[in-house]
Design a protein that fits this description.
globular, 6-stranded mixed sheet, 15 strands, 4-stranded mixed sheet, 3 domains, Nucleoside Triphosphate Pyrophosphohydrolase, 24% helix
Length: 282
């Protein structure tokens, strides 16, 4: 299963505009609360640590129903850079069951969006939480604002029996991954794949095939996984984008995925880049 997917959460969209339904959810005897500390999750025995819901916490966000009972989330107000992942969090995500990671991803993205979107993009006035946490409303110009998700293409670029890998300087030592980049305005997925690979590595791409997608909560993106066929293998690396890039063989990828020492360290299992490389290696 691809990381941050697989939650059995019922999102109860039909209840988000119903104050009475929200009040009932707050007082439901089985309601639980997920409290993020600086956008990081509380962990107990490698699982999300949920606590009983306090009905007085009317400022909590209603994620939905989990196992027939409401699940709320709230941040503790401690500021954290939205895209950052601490070593502790990376270790926790690697050990966390799939559904727990998916629930955490939903909560993190939603809480972070509220923190960073407190003012109306239309008139500049302060906004307030609405729709049980799934929107913000402007009392001045009546505009409604909804959580955003930014589309990102991420691609295993293959050339014969090799795949193109690159790394950014901020990554852990030895870590390499597939190339990725934001989809621009007026651009299809296929066009974004071709442009990003050409810009970052100087390689022209022909055929592009969609594989799978992943919600990525750092801060809130939809990773659109693809396999692309390179038309040449000459690398012209844009060092403003990548620290390094190289063509890895299938055997090298298999070894890295197995945790063996070699030219590079594979992406973590919760990243869709890992799933792409597994699919390509197989």
């Amino acid at each position: 299963m691809i990381g941050f997917t697989g939650a059995t959460l019922e999102r109860v969209d039909h209840e988000r505009d119903d104050p009475a339904a929200f009040a009932r959810a707050l007082t439901h005897p089985g309601a639980r609360l997920l409290v993020l500390h600086g956008l990081e999750p509380p962990i107990a025995d490698d699982r999300l640590a949920l606590v009983p819901m306090d009905p007085k916490r009317g400022d909590a966000l209603l994620l939905g129903n989990l196992g027939g009972a409401p699940l709320f989330a709230i941040g503790d107000g401690v500021a954290t850079a939205p895209a950052m992942r601490s070593p502790t969090l990376m270790t926790a995500l690697a050990a966390m069951p799939a559904e727990g990671a998916a629930l955490y991803g939903i909560a993190r993205s939603l809480i972070d969006w509220h923190v960073r979107h407190g003012f109306c993009a239309n008139c500049g006035q302060a906004t307030s939480v609405s729709r049980a946490g799934w929107a913000r409303a402007c009392g001045n110009c009546t505009a409604q604002h909804f959580p955003r998700t930014d589309p990102v293409v991420i691609m295993a670029v293959e050339q014969g029996d090799r795949v193109l890998l690159g790394r950014q300087p901020s990554w852990p030592p030895g870590r390499y991954s597939t190339l990725a980049g934001f989809v621009e305005v007026g651009e299809s997925i296929e066009e974004a794949v071709r442009r990003e690979v050409l810009e970052e590595a100087g390689v022209r791409v022909g055929a592009v095939r969609y594989v799978a997608s992943q919600p990525w909560p750092f801060p809130s993106q939809l990773m659109i996984g693809c396999v692309a066929i390179a038309e040449d293998d000459q690398l012209r690396i844009d060092t403003a984008e990548l620290e390094d890039a190289f063509w890895a063989t299938r055997d090298e990828v298999r070894a890295a995925l197995a945790g063996e020492s070699g030219r590079f360290v594979a992406p973590p299992a919760y990243a869709i880049a890992h799933s792409l490389l597994v699919a390509w290696a197989e």
